[in-house]
Amino acid sequence: MTADRFVRSTRKYGAIALVSARRALAERSVLAGRALFLGVIVFIFSRVWETVLGQGPQAIPGAGKRELIWYLAVTEWCLLSVPHLFLAIEADVRSGDIACRLVRPVSYLGTQIAEALGETGLRLLVLGPTGAAVAFWMAGGFPEDPRGLLLALPLGALASVLAVLSTAAIGLSAFWIVDTSPVYWIWQKLVFVLGGLLLPLELYPDWLRTLARCSPFPAMLWGPGRMAFGFAPEAALVTLLELLAWGVGIGVGLAWLSRSARARLTVSGG
Fold first, then answer.
1. Are 228 and 72 in contact (CB under 8 A)?
2. Could you point out which of 10, 51, 59, 191 has its C-alpha 20 to 30 Å from the C-alpha of 167?
């Protein structure tokens, strides 16, 4: 791909993402619902942490109630900002519209990902201040070393991009199994547990922590979330490299799935 073609493609998909963001902005009830849910989750678990930490010493060195509340706010921010892209792809496959959309001059998969990224970007901008405000209120202030939160911002955004790519891959599985909900549920539960959505990996038993570190899920949630424990540029760099590496891996998998889906559609007479 030449530089000129790359610039044109970037502008084209950037415009698609911008339109998607504007459309998502018009759906204020959806944004308000996610913001409310984020606030409720942080509120509930702030009480849990207060009870647990009040009964014993710190489970994680340097991470008290305040830091754990901010950890939860960051991980929930990353996850709740990701739209259900797999449902849009599944709907196109079920209706047969996919056959018409594949012959358009723009990539179908690229368009879907661009639209999802546009919506994700808007949600990050809306849910970020919401989660920060609730965490600040419930924790009684910022973490002891708030500089780590500055590192969590770009890492959280990249983590959400990785999650979008993952849901795109789940959506493409509709070419084989039609109903992608079971695949998404499995992926979601793995994110919850192995990603450390509610509990940092430091609290896991050694065997489970080792298993989690062999998957992309910790980079999506635990990596950005642990920045709430303090300013750790080395750990942030490791998370960044993990996000980029897993992003490349999932991107290659998406390209293979897209080619296989096209071949399957052609064989089936689509």
1. no
2. 10
